[in-house]
């Protein structure tokens, strides 16, 4: 049997595959429409982060001697996971490492400066206050700026005044901050993003700003939070998946619960239990299927009950003629000559076999026709097993039953089931060793096991052992086996007592049948 794969998992996986396909198609359409354009990376959030970083960095470069500019650029580059350098607008490197600019970047660097945007101020920015920058850009600008000696660590990674120190008085509003023109270039070989920011820098020897371009090389967007911050996208993706799962959960759960009920009902019907009912309140195809299964189970239960009643009636009617035939044959044997005795013996044997078959049919039908609401009795398992061993064991049965075990069952049916099992075990496997009858309590059930050490049965025959008239070995004759009603009678008797029965081949060799009853 193949490993089952839950329907719920299939639906959920199919749904997310659908989302994935839609996302891939949408990405392909956008790529075909916009090509390799990188303007979308310079969204409002990224642009604000770049402007803030540039403002702070240019202010620090303006107030730092030239020999320390490389250290400033390295510190900011480590904070934002990119490589920074300062170039003049004619392509000359002024500070930072040599980035070996590819031709597309060099072309974008030396082209004419774009016209000022609305609100743009082409001047060197004033030095920002560290308190404002640390409060607003605590991560990662604080790492780039470095901690202050008179500030302690804040709860979110920033710096705050130590306890007892008065906060500084509010300052008048600053003039409008400069807007730095931005440009983003992407090169294919290698796949790298180049950020170009036009900004004025004050030299060491004069106070007039000179126009320069801040060039940043970004090797991976996944590690860089300046251009593309993954956290909002991941949060939205997780929220979307969670919402989709919660949105689909009631529908999928309803479908899988209904299908599970239908599967359980059909499995019970396959095992011969037709007293199953399925909820018919659904108004869809599953509700109609449940209604059809209920009708089918009711009709099958009627057919099986009618068949057993018919068998019982026929068996009962056949009992009287068979008894009269045996009596007549006995009288004939007394009066017939000696040479006829052998033939009369053969006829008597045939009539005896017929009587046994009729008795088994009668037992089978009576066990199956027991009223389901008939009261059960509290029975001691040890006493019942001892009675069966004494009657059927012939000295070849070993019983191990605790004296305190009690079950809820019908004594007549339980004795018949035990008797059939012990008789079969002695007949087919008594030569291989003693037959073992044991009983244990497992939770709210008592398990009675009849095991032997014989050859067992073929594995393919196990599911059909309790079918009426089924025999694993079709070559069996009347001398080596019955007509295939022994285990069917056992199943009918056990189920009439509200229990269940199963058969298996033992790992150490032999065959075992387990009967489970409700513990008293």
Taking pLDDT < 50 over at least 5 consecutive residues as the criterion, the unreliable ranges are 118-125, 132-139, 148-160, 171-175, 474-478
The name of the CATH architecture of the largest domain is: 2-Layer Sandwich
In helices, the fraction of residues equals: 40-55%
Number of helices: 12
From the N-terminal CA to the C-terminal CA, the straight-line distance is 37 Å
Summed up, the domain count is 3
Question: How would you sum up the major sheet?
Answer: 5 strands, antiparallel
Major sheet: order of its strands? 2-1-7-6-5
Structural class: alpha+beta
Q: What CATH first level of the largest domain would be assigned?
A: Alpha Beta
The CATH topology of the largest domain is given as: Beta-Lactamase
Instruction: Give the topology string: H per helix, E per strand.
Output: HHHEEHHHEEEEEHHHEHEEHEEHEE
Strand content: 15-25%
Can you count the beta strands?
14
Average pLDDT rating: 76
